[in-house]
Design goal:
210 residues, 8 helices, Glycerol uptake facilitator protein
């Protein structure tokens, strides 16, 4: 049970930080938002990694399952925990901000989907290699590597798609009102697709890993 509680808490702080620093409903952090988001992800990974693996992202959990480190039943429990954390974070942010944005219906679908696949693929690839590989077991840099990947991808393609790279973040931003329900499929397909691709590539590149 502790690992699922950890996933709720870690996802909460990640999604809460995303919502508070990027929502048009508040002052936000502007160009510094990716730094805050990458930083909170980094510290939450260090805080909870020894308990749950610190996924905080359904796409990461999916990639870990494809890589062979989790079964479907456990992955679904992680997803439920992450969704709960994201929903609580969204409503907490909505309360503090006094409301949310007005949606993002104007997204370019093809470009946004491509951006989310690329960003999520980069994130999950890094997670699998620094946090699940036996060759890197016991390393102390995994949190920094993962946090900086989110920071870099947010700067690289965040202006195109909104830079979720995480279905829990997409749900939180949608519940807040910054994303539209008509566009959430872009994030679900793009993020889970990126996680799937990362898991498959990892297995191909590391056939000796179990």
């Amino acid at each position: 049970m502790n690992k699922y509680i950890t996933e709720v808490l870690g996802t909460f702080f990640l999604v809460f930080t995303v919502c508070m620093t990027t929502s048009p409903a508040g002052a936000g952090a502007g160009a510094l938002a990716p730094i805050a988001i990458g930083s909170v992800l980094m510290v939450m990974i260090y805080a909870g990694g020894h308990i749950s693996g610190a996924h905080y992202n359904p796409a990461v959990s999916f990639g870990v399952m494809i890589r062979g480190r989790a079964n479907m039943a456990e992955t679904v429990k992680y997803w439920v925990s992450q969704i709960i954390g994201a929903a609580i974070a969204a409503y907490a942010a909505r309360y503090l901000l006094g409301g949310g944005g007005s949606g993002n219906e104007g997204l370019d679908t093809a470009r946004s989907l491509t951006a989310e696949i690329i960003g999520t693929f980069a994130l999950v690839t890094v997670v699998l290699n620094v946090a699940t590989s036996t060759k890197n077991a016991g390393n102390s840099y995994y949190g920094v590597a993962i946090g900086f990947t989110v920071l870099a991808m947010a700067y690289a393609v965040g202006g195109i798609s909104g830079g979720a790279f995480n279905p829990a973040v997409a749900l939180g931003k949608t519940l807040l009102g910054d994303f539209s329900w008509t566009t959430i499929w872009i994030y679900l397909v793009g993020n889970l697709g990126g996680g799937l691709l990362a898991g498959v590539v990892y297995k191909v590149m590391n056939p000796e890993e179990k």
